[in-house]
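User: Working on a comparison across species. This one is N-acetylglucosamine-6-phosphate deacetylase from Streptomyces apricus. Can you predict its structure so I can line it up against the others?
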Amino acid sequence: MTTNRPHEGAPEGARGTARPAPTGPQPTILTGATVVLPTGTVPNGRVIVEGTRIAGSAPEGAPTLDLSNHWLVPGFVDMHNHGGGGASFTSGTVEEILQGVRTHRLHGTTTLVASTVTGDMDGLAQRAGLLSELAEQGDLAGIHFEGPFISPCRKGAHSEELLRDPDPAEVRKLVDAARGQARMVTLATELPGGIDSVRLLVEHGVIAAIGHTDATYEQTAEAIDAGATVATHLFNAMPVLGHRTPGPIAALLEDERITVELINDGVHLHPASLQLAFHHAGGGRVAFITDAMDAAGFGDGRYMLGPLEVEVADGVARLVEGGSIAGSTLTLDRAFKRAVTVDRLPVEDVVSAISANPARQLGLYDRVGSLEPGKDADLVVLDSGFEVRGVMRRGEWLVGPPVGPR
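Assistant: Here's the predicted structure for N-acetylglucosamine-6-phosphate deacetylase from Streptomyces apricus:
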């Protein structure tokens, strides 16, 4: 806060002299919108932005911005994203990676974890070093290693020749290469070394995620007891839910310790599967992710996902060889709109799934994930049809803002 007190040590005679006007950030009051807060939805609410943060109060006469007939929600948090804007986080240059990050920011994702795909260990370690630099300077929220420690039976769009068992020593190599910026590692925990690798990740403060797995119900429960806390894109790349062999899906849905990722693009999940996940996990344990690849926000065409060629047609990405779904072209604003308008989920639950829950799981909820004083001024303005009309990140408008009622 800027004050009018003289500088300490100023001569007594200087106290009555004219002082320069305050030069610090001046608050702006965002008014009129329907604001989604952790305590509930507030019609005609207000949020105060001061500099890069959300403030608790503003002086009388502070400038206001009228957001009537809009929704005001926290910036989106994507904990599983491989690229966008034509750029891959696994193979792109620094400028290409930043272009991918900017693409997703324009769609409301103000916090993004960069995910890699399966590659050789030396290449992944080198990539971790590059991505960690971007995380250290605040462009990324960390690194997620999806592969190579996954099941060949459930490999999806990962190169089978490069897959390996989760040897704790090799898992540690990637964590060390990330220089404190590793946020999550996806593992097929039923493979040799899987449980020991979960314990190693927990010891180093890294999320152990169960995914691309052929585990049984019992094996999955063992991994959860060892410390795994995330289900990587639940339902996808794992055995189906069976009445005699419930497999990993039942274990992951029923355990309160697990946050389940969902790709809500209308391709990866049937609406009934999404409803099943929300019914059993509740609004507090679902995290919407994009699992986006290069084509997100860019367009159809041919792309590379690691060493594998992908054809994107009508917004759906599939491997050229074999036809497996290869990530998505989703942006989180589309996931938000679909959840409300197609799946008919309460807006409060959608905000939890797209902002608060992933922020909590990543250990970032003290800074992002909700519109509370002291947190980063990351927010999204949506119109009545849930289209993005404004995006603010750390107090700077990247999209908009909309001006006046619409």
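For your comparison, note: The domain at 76-361 is CATH 3.20.20.140 (TIM Barrel).

User: Helpful, thanks.
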